[in-house]
Amino acid sequence: xxxxxxxWRTVDGERVEGTxxxxxxxxxxxxxxxxxxxxxxAVVDCWELLTLAEFELKLASGRVATEIPDGARASAHxxxxxxxxxxxxxxxxxxxxxxxxxxxxxxxxxxxSSARCVEAALRFAGxxxxxxxxxxRAAYAAVPEHLRRYMLGDxxxxxxxxxxxxxxxxxxxxxxxxxxxxxxxxALQYFADREASKVLTGKRRVPEPEGTGTSIYIPQVTFxxxxxxxxxxxxxxxxxxxQVVVDGRTYPSVDHAYWCKxxxxxxxxxxxxxxxxxxxxxxAVQGRRLREGWEVMRLAVMTDLLRAKFAQHxxxxxxxxxxxxxxxxxxxxxxxxxxxxxxxxxxxxxxLLELVRSERxxxxxxGPAGQSLS
Length: 374
What we know:
The protein is an alpha+beta fold.
């Protein structure tokens, strides 16, 4: 990996950023240790400037050598020469090509294959369907094999959480580990914890609102045996199993109520009510026609549902009040409209929780006739 080595070349008066890593160039029977220079415009310099397609041909021909036989001669210009013995190479031609492609992505400020795989894992954790698993499987296969263990930046777990999600319960990972239900649940929890740790360690660059000085993350928690009996911040989430009664109908959670409100078909509503939140409720309406104008009215619907939830559950309202004046960051796998994800997202769920918290504080400060006690 060469991301810390920077260079450039000039093309038509413009600077093109680049980086490099060592490689062997084969010339006849000799192998020369040299710099393989990779540029942002997808040009590779290995004794000549090549496009990525041309570089791939050089790899296939062995001109850029990833396999070196015992007894082969080698030299490093003006440094040393030697003969190879007991050769062990660690990078295949496919791995090196994948690494070069990743460098081009990074030089252009785009996510590389590892970042795309992590994003696919997050999406699968948010919507654990077989279609999403297929996408994750393809994203994992695209990561150069020698870089997979580094993709999460966690040298204790390495890429095991991704492997468990890719394989699925009852199957073996590429390393031959059987994925149990517990291991699969652990992998899902791993990515929920990963989101939380980014906030707690300050890696999410979400600006603080003026006058508060703190942000509170509303965690997404997976409990294989059900929700904890101890109320925590996760009770502020829509999928928390707190019944709400709205317009004379009872819903198992705000999440159920929201998706029932999104459709008019009573059969679909029945499937939503029978589904497990949050993933099952979303799946129940996938491919179904939402009510006309839903994108315009959804904020008002969600606001009413949150007001009902905390009015009907004083214990949950106390948890909300306990967040004080802090900014509430609702992080998870929902659409960016509702949550913050990384440095992006509009966080409407967090903002609406702050609104309801503020309304309830004002109501507590008012007398029986609605006059301020101050």
